[in-house]
Amino acid sequence: MGFYIRQIIKMMAQHVLFPVYYFFCCRKPVRNGLVVFADEHRTACPPSMQRLHDALLSQHRFTVVDDFFDLQAMSALSGMRRMFAFMKLYAQAEFVILQDNFLPVSSCRKRKETKVIQLWHGCGAFKRFGYDAKDDIPRFYKGNVYKNYDLVTVSSPYCRPFFTSAMRIKHPKIVRAYGSSYTDCYFDEAYKHAMREKFERIYGEKDGRTVIVWAPTFRGNARQQNVGERTIGETWIDQLAENPAYLVIKSLHPHMLKRGESQPMTTGELLFSADILITDYSSVMFEYLLLDRPLLLFAPDLEVYRQTRGWYLDYEELPGRIVTQGETLTSAVAETLQEDPYKNERKEFGARYMSRCDGNVTRRLVHYMIHEETKKNDVEKLV
Fold this sequence. Notes:
Layout: H1 2-25, E1 34-39, H2 47-57, E2 63-68, H3 76-92, E3 95-98, E4 115-118, E5 151-153, H4 160-166, E6 175-176, H5 189-203, E7 210-215, H6 234-241, E8 246-250, H7 267-270, E9 276-279, H8 284-288, E10 295-298, H9 302-308, E11 321-323, H10 329-338, H11 343-353, H12 361-382
C-alpha cells in the first residue's frame, strides 16, 4: 500500500505542485552559463558525471552548481523541500545535467532557453529499462518521467533506438551517439595508473594473485530492495574467494548496500586492476570491453531473469562464458584464465556497442554546450 501512495504523491507533484512553483520561479530570467548537475540518488557527484563536471569547472564561461541528494534517506517533507529548491534552479539554468531519471525535470513545460542533457549512467543497451521494463515504472503511473530532454548521449549509434524506446523519446534525433563521458578515463594513462595505485593502497599488492571483481546487477526497485540480504550467487563467490591464488573483490550496486555503508572503490575504479570480471546482467561489462580482458557471466537465475526482465540482445551472444550452475563456477574461472576464447568476439561486440567511447566524449559535450550558448547569444544580439 505504501508503494502506491508514494506513486500517487509523485504524480501529484509532477502534474500540480512542481509546475506551479516552476511557473512562479520563471519570473526571473535564465542565467547565461548556469549549469546545474542534479541527481536524487547520490550526495556527491556520480562517476558518470565527474569528467564533464570537472571540464566545465575549468571553463570560465560556465557557473557550475551541484544539487545532489539521497531522496531515500530523507523524510517526505525534506525530500519535497529539496526538489522545490531544484525547481528554482531549474527555472534559471541554461543547462541541467542528469545521469538518471529525475522527476522534477519532467514535471513542467520547461523554458526553451534551458537545455537538459541526459548522460545516463551506463553504456551499451543490455537489460530492458524505463518503459520497456516491467518493474521500472508502474503501469498505472501517468506522466513521462523522461520528458524535456534536449540531448541523450549513448555509447554507439547501434544503441540509439533502444534508448528512444525506453524513454519514449518523441524526437529520436535528440538521442545522439556522442559516447559516454565517463569512459574517457579508459584513455587517460595517468588516471589508470592512479587507480592501480589506489587499489594497492587499499587491497595490497597482487603478489602473483589473480584479481577477480564480482559486480552483480541491481535487481528490482530501489525502495523495494531487501538491503543486506545475500545476493544471488554470492555463496559461490565466497567459495571462489577461498582459493589463495585469487583476490576476489565484491563490488555491489549502491542500492544493495546497507544505509551508511560504502565501498572503498567504485566498480569502475576496480576494473583497471581486474584480471577478470564476473557479472550477470550489469552494463559494467560494456565499459570493461575497453580494457579487452576476460569476462565471465555468472547468472544462476538466468531463465527467471529472462522472463521477468529481459534484454535488448541475445544473452547467449555476449562475449564471455556463461555459467548458471554455482558448482561449476570455480572450474569455469580457471579455464577462462587459462584460455580466453572470446577475444575476437569482444572486439566485434565492442565495435557495435562502444564505438563512440574513444576518449573524446567530454570534449564533444563541452563543444555542444558552447555551441548552444553561442547560438543563443547570437539570437539575442539580433533581437
